[in-house]
Amino acid sequence: VQLQASGGGLVQTGGSLRLSCVASGRIFNINEIGWYRQAPGKQRELVARIGSMGNTNYKDSVKGRFTISRDNAKNTVDLQMTNLKPEDTGTYYCVAMELNLWGQGTQVTVSS
Q1: Rounded CA separation 37/45 (Å)
Q2: Bridge partners of 79?
Q3: Which of 41, 46, 69, 89 minimizes the number of CB atoms within 10 Å of its CB?
């Protein structure tokens, strides 16, 4: 399985973006898939994760603003981001967590 992330870009504070992660293989048997981000000079952090049954967890700072979803039939995991803030800036990665399989990142920049 390989993961391909897309959807990043430059937005103003308060704007929205939808990130998409497409797997080259089937994801239905991958339990947890997460979105991580890394800001310049900072460690990578887990932003959101979703289990195979649709159970979700979010970093406190994005609760109510970000929504993670998955479509096992389409082998996709999306991250809808709303009310974006400058501190959301970073490179976002989708990850098949129990496989420690990382896709390439997509850059999100939120201007103030």
Answers
A1: 6
A2: 19, 68
A3: 41
Identify the burial level of 80 via C-beta atoms within 10 angstroms of its C-beta, where 0-12 means exposed, 13-18 middle and 19 or more buried.
middle
Q: Which two tokens stand for residue 83?
A: 């009310």
Q: What whole-number distance in Å separates Cα of residue 75 and Cα of residue 95?
A: 13
Question: What is the Cα–Cα distance from 96 to 86, expressed in whole angstroms?
Answer: 27
Residue 80 has pLDDT above 80, yes or no: yes
pLDDT tens per residue across span 10-54: 999 999 999 999 988 777 678 899 999 999 899 999 999 999 889
- Work out the number of other CB atoms within 10 angstroms of the CB of residue 109: 15
Q: Which pLDDT band holds residue 94 (cuts at 50, 70, 90)?
A: very high
Tell how far CA 83 is from the center of its chain: 15
- Residue 6 neighbours by CB under 8 Å, 6+ apart: 19, 20, 22, 106
